[in-house]
Design brief:
single chain; 117 residues; alpha+beta; 2 strands; 13% strand
Length: 117
């Protein structure tokens, strides 16, 4: 099992989404030319998180049938990993949160439960 990644619970939020260079995205196999700034950063963080936790990545498929082209996409789970439920973080993967965040999560869970009835 890979070592536990560092927890950045004391890191203040960034004032804006960072610019992620194309070369860094290509290096981690998460580059899409049409992605806006937020999605670029999110894809990179997803890929790094999956790698840190030893979760296999998947592919992006363009087209269909004989014209289909599969490209490695390291921010996407492999179908086997998704079937095994690895797209849901385990409690050990989650970092501690503030009381306000815990309250908001509880309210959200309650709201989802009410909507399901």
């Amino acid at each position: 099992m890979p070592p536990s990644p560092p927890v950045f619970s004391n890191t203040p939020p960034l004032p804006r989404v960072p610019f992620v260079p194309d070369g860094l995205l290509r290096h981690h196999h998460v580059y899409f030319q049409i992605d806006p700034r937020f999605r670029r950063a999110a894809r990179l963080l997803q890929a790094l998180w999956l790698k840190d936790h030893g979760i296999p990545n998947g592919h992006h498929v363009r087209g269909s049938g004989d014209d289909a082209v599969a490209t490695p996409l390291h921010s996407r789970l492999s179908s086997d990993a998704a079937s095994a439920g690895l797209n849901f973080p385990l409690p050990r993967h989650l970092r501690p949160c503030s009381p306000r965040t815990a309250f908001a999560r509880g309210r959200l869970r309650h709201r989802r439960g009410s909507a399901a009835r």
